[in-house]
Amino acid sequence: MIEDDLRAAFARHETLTPSTGPVRAAIERTVVRRRRHRFRLRLRLGGTALALVVAALVGVPAFTPDRTVTVPLLTGSAPPTPTGALNVLLVGADGPADRPYRFADSVLLVHVPADRSRLYLVSLPRDLEVSIPGHGRDKLNAALSFGAGQPRPDLARGYALTRRVVSDTIGVRIDAGAVLTYPVVRKLADAVGGVPVCLPAEIRSAHTRRVFPAGCQQLDGAASVDLLRQRQGMPDGSLDRDRNAQRYAAGLLRRVDERGVLTDPVLLSKLLTQVGTGLVTETGETSLPALLSVATKGTGAAPVAMVLPVEYVEKPNYRFRLDPALGPGFLTALREDRLGEWTAAHPDRVTGLG
């Protein structure tokens, strides 16, 4: 009898029960949002980690949240670590990521040989005359602006066009890369506790009253950005700025290596948190774990730095062209992974880093 009464009571009140459809839909939307948030978070950290690696490799205001980090990186089914030579392209841009850019300040190719013996830092002069698809002949630094567009530039597109131009010009495949802005460089330098840099001569800032004495010194974030911007008043102008960027790269790499950042997940996580976002990276077919593995192997010896052999051309306007005497041989050595032999034969072309 009690059971019948209960059934009757439930039947009378059943029509008053709200539909479960909206509740289920709300739960499903919440689940989807949480999944998407976790995915974006992991994607952003993946891109920042790559930028940290390339910044540790070259230390210039060059690249890179990443729209090209692939799903295998997140799922664990990443491709195997590459065994051949790798080329990482770093493009430096002044100012925050959401403001218009006219030119790239720095273009640096990091060549990692197949034997992982050391890293080679090859600066490509920003005023190098190149062919830019859709824009004719112009300076290399214009590719970033042409690709990014206006009024709100897309740095990923700017990097893509720059990568294409560099690959066509020097004849090598670009495996990964990034674009770093000066605000990111400032955060990175402060996050690692300063970057040691050794300069062959005194530099007086054309932008501030700061003086960088000859010799070795420790640079915080503000001083790092100030140094990397300097070209006025230096004997070789923008070429000297490229050499100072290489010296800064060597110091940053040494600093990161001393702290064991790339091999300590806890330290890496802390550093990524301090640096934050505002980066643009591209991994191509190479996974982040693979790049980390390559980066740690390549830090066993001091990096070797050089500027692409060029000659000055004053007319029709100030720019550089490939040195007809040394340029072809250098590019052949780069393509054939023989930079060690080339630098040994041309020691005067190697930038002094310490």
Large-scale geometry: globular
CATH superfamily (homologous) name: LCP protein
Helix content: 40-55%
Helix and strand element order: HHHEEEEEHHEHEEEEHHHEHEEEHH
CATH topology annotation: Aminopeptidase
Structure overview:
By secondary structure, the chain is α+β, with helices and mostly antiparallel strands. The protein contains 12 helices and 14 strands. α2 packs parallel to α10 and α4 crosses α5. The model is unreliable at 36-50 and 57-76 (pLDDT under 50). Belongs to the LytR/CpsA/Psr (LCP) family.
Sum up the structure in keywords.
354 residues, 6-stranded mixed β-sheet, alpha+beta, 12 helices, Aminopeptidase, two-stranded antiparallel sheet, 14 strands
Brief summary:
Helix content is 44%, strand content 18%. It has 354 residues and is an alpha+beta fold.
